[in-house]
Amino acid sequence: MRLTHSLMALAVASALVAAPAAAQSGAVSAASVVEARVQGAAGVVFGEVRESVRGAALPGARIRINGVETTTASDGSFRVAGLPAGTHAISVDYLGYQPLADRITVGADGGLRVEISLVSTVDTSTTLGRIEVRATRDAQALALNQQRVSDNYRNVVSADLLGRFPDTNLAEATQRIPGVSIERDQGEGRYVNVRGAPLEFTSVSVDGVQLASPNASRRAVELDTIPADVISALEVTKALTPDMDGDAIAGQINIVTQSALDGDDLILRGSAGAGEYELGSGKNQRANLTIGNRFGADRNIGVLIAASGSRSGRFTDNVETAFFRDEDGRILPETTEIKDYEGERTRTGVTGRFDFRLDADNLFYFIASNSRFKDHEFRDTLAIEYERHTDDSTEFAGTAGRATFDKELRERTQAQRIRTFNLGGEHYAGNDWKIDWQASRSTGILEVSPRMQYIFRSSVRPQLEYDYANPDFPSWRIVGADGAPESGVNLPEDWYAFRRLNDRYEYAKENETGLRLDFSRPQTFLGDSGDLRFGVRARLRDKDSNDDRRRNGDAGDFASLGIGYSDMLCDSWSNNFDYFLTGRRFCRDIFSRYAEALRESPNHNVLVPDSITNDYRAEEDIHATYVRLDARWDKLSMVGGLRYERTATSGEAAYYDLDEETAVVQRVERDYVKLLPSLHFRYEFDPDSILRWSYSTGISRPNFTNTVPRLVISDNDREIEGGNPELKATYSHNLDVSYEHYLRPLGLLSVAAFYKRLDDPIFVTNSTVAGGPYDGLRLTRAENGADGRILGLELAWQQTFDFLPAPFDGLGVYANYTYADSRAELPFGAGRTDLPGTSKHNANVALFYEKHGFNARIAWNHRSKYIQEFDVLDPDFNVFWDERSILDFSTSYQFSPNWQVFGEINNITDSRQRRFQGQDNRVLELEQFGRFWLAGVRFEY
After folding, report:
1. Which fold is adopted by the domain 260-940?
2. How far apart, in whole angstroms, are the C-alpha atoms of residue 134 and residue 152?
3. What is the DSSP string of 903-922?
4. What is the separation of C-alpha 17 from the centre of its chain, rounded to a whole number of angstroms?
5. What tens digit of pLDDT does each residue of 131-143 get?
6. Does domain 2-121 have CATH number 2.60.120.1060?
């Protein structure tokens, strides 16, 4: 550390010696360029700060004029009003760039427009070197400078930096951020956890517009729907200010889109790549294109379009075993399913942005985005049901007196879309008032069609010996059945006969209309300077969900097709994990060839209770107002205020009477109010050493399915799932303390501690119904616990080692670690437990090298185990995701100023994903995905 500080001091001293002591208005300093011209209202200095290579905007630059300090906005713009006529000193500080020290002259008859161009601290003597600067180093600089000047605690990561990691979607990109972890579906990132909190504790927005969720059952946004290539930056705010929506107990993830006004010239970049998935040899393809430019006589109109697409042929080996406790208290295997997944996932995303800076005081913008995710999947399954266990049977080994075998094929196409429209403006009225407004619409749509499934059942019910000595790879032996295999469960094909055809259609749609109006002006009654802000907000959300189910279980209908089970199989063999051998797999065209006749039959019946009770409709209107006070005293700044949110909800669902076979629509309504105070302090020991302290509050509203009056009976008629209209929103009190030290020329060391106290945490629990028509059935329903808490620690280190001698000056590190611990009171006085999604340990370590156009990065990500589901009746059946580590590698070489080649390898160690019940020998699920790679080209003009 002493060596690092010495080298930093030497670099700063060299920069100060190189810079002129003073310069006249419009003069050129050693590090930067200032161009000034008279324009606008008297006493106002405004303009933009950009980098010298591409003319890209530099947000988060610290500007000081005549003792007044401000920072640049996302488009690099700044504005200082109320300056007297005369000559003033101006200074600009930006990590990774040479500082500016200059003077400007403000006249008495007009304002001054100032254009500032900063030069990187890296040697840019060659054209290729200048392009290199725009790569990882500038990407880090853009993010770190915005984070450094923030009034509250947040992490900012630029898209350029995230693009250096081999991540296939936006969810996976977020896992590189301190305190952020992800939940996966078949090995691919889908949901985001922040600081070990449940998924619903995090909100997701695009340019401040809350995203609607396509998911029929939860609020959490499935971020794998959004490609990672259509964003400009990610902002993760972990301590809310009063002007922010309150439904982000853990944090708010804001996706920032790029504006054509962020650059001076034509923006044109793109990439294309292709590769393969090791498991199943599926295709891996990805491409993106961004084009934008400035127009108009004053080049004050910006138009930008970004498009992205990907295709992945994913294969997954999967085996699942569910356990139960019998009447004697023994824990025994109940079912085993061996599944082969074969599918194709495609993502497309388009974002368009129009910006019109009418003049220095007025900006209008319109942003539209559309993301689509489609998953077309075939799933071959061998399902085993264990019955009549012998007296000597245990969870480790034993004999089922009777075993039922099903062979199944399911074809499912799931499509999700997220669309946003955002119209807004920023306006200055005189020298004091600023007005911001926004009108938005977000829509999330889920459609699952087709979703059909053939089931064939064995006519033989043999005894089955099982052995779970190796819980990941159990073994079986069929006993007392002629023609059975000597070991394993690859049954003779002539044992199987048609059982049924399942047919299902799902559709869900969520809309949110948002309106926002904010006012701000300088205040002088507290501190040396500051601002007073207040505003109003409305979010009007509605959701509809429809689930239709049909079934044909008539053996005569199938016999009339003139085929048997073997006729539906092809010469593709199941070889799950190179261990589970279950015979030939189904042909993929059997739905198109044989399903229509079964669907047109009068025996293809609607499952009335299921189809009715799964449907629901909900509305939620949130109206909010807030007041925020900012104050600054030399090195200390404060942000405080209060937010008021009123929530009005209603929900409809049908109750189905099994005895009368009738359905009655039930409706519930509820209103509640939450006050959300917050207070933030920021203290600068020096411009690069910052201490923050925050108290904030937040809420997490229940999922719609958990509050509407629905009661759904499972297919086996042994379980029901219900809504709970009395469910309360979770309320939290949050404390955050952080220290950040920014390293020159470019880097960061930080430590942050956090504590969250939770009132009314929500758990999805299991219990038994007592009395009524559902007496004795197992009920799954959301309930409130009494209280809870989350506490933890975040550590982060990122640095480029420019100060090392060549060739080691191209090295760098990006690393972070998060410790989180949670505890909460379960409902019904059932004790205390962790919150769902809390991993005690999350870590990222990425080592990179970038020099002479060559870039290489190896990235390791680790997440420790966490609880997913609770069984209040029996904690031995709580469901956990096991720990998992993933190693990825990416590299690129820039062989001309505009072109580079790149390559990526994911999951190098062939890491598997594992779930278990209660303890790790009860393996609920084991999945394998294999390695995959991609290679291609990028261009930028």
Report:
1. Maltoporin; Chain A (2.40.170)
2. 28
3. EEEE-TT---EEEEESSTTS
4. 46
5. 344 455 667 787 8
6. no
